[in-house]
Amino acid sequence: MSEEKPKWNMERVRQEIYDARTKIFVVTKVLETGSIKPEEYPEWVLVIKPLLREIDENVAKIRSLLGEEVPAGEA
Predict the structure, then answer these.
(1) Distance between CA atoms of 48 and 51, rounded to whole angstroms?
(2) DSSP class of residue 37?
(3) Is the pLDDT confidence value at 27 over 80?
(4) Containing domain of residue 70, as a range?
(5) Which residues make Cβ contacts (< 8 Å) with residue 69, sequence separation at least 6?
(6) Which of 3, 12, 61, 71 minimizes the number of CB atoms within 10 Å of its CB?
(7) Which domain of life is it from (predicted)?
C-alpha cells in the first residue's frame, strides 16, 4: 500500500499565501487607481464585500493561533 502525501505541506502553504497576497494587492490597486469604479460594476462590489468580511473574521483567528494579542473589537 502506498503512503499518501499530506494534503498540506509547507510549499503548498507558501504558494497559497503568496497567491492570496497577490490577489488582495490587485483588488487594492484596482480600487486605488480607479481602474474599475464600484458604481459602474456593482456586481464586483457584491463579490468583494463578502471577501472582506471573511478576511476580517479570519484575521482575529489567525492572530490568536499565532499567539498574538487580538486588538479589542477584532475578537
Answers:
(1) 5
(2) -
(3) yes
(4) 37-75
(5) 63
(6) 3
(7) Bacteria
Position 71 scores a pLDDT of 72
- In this structure, the answer to whether residues 45 and 75 fall within a common structural domain is yes
46, 18: one domain: no
Residue 72 placed within a domain: yes
pLDDT, mean of residues 34-46: 90
Residues for the chain: how many in total? 75
- What single letter denotes the amino acid at residue 40? E
Same domain, 41 and 72: yes
Cα distance between residue 58 and residue 64, in whole Å: 10
CA separation for the pair 56, 71 (Å, rounded): 12
User: What is residue 5's predicted lDDT score, i.e. its pLDDT?
Assistant: 73
pTM of the model: 0.65
| Whether residue 44 is found in the same domain as residue 29 | no
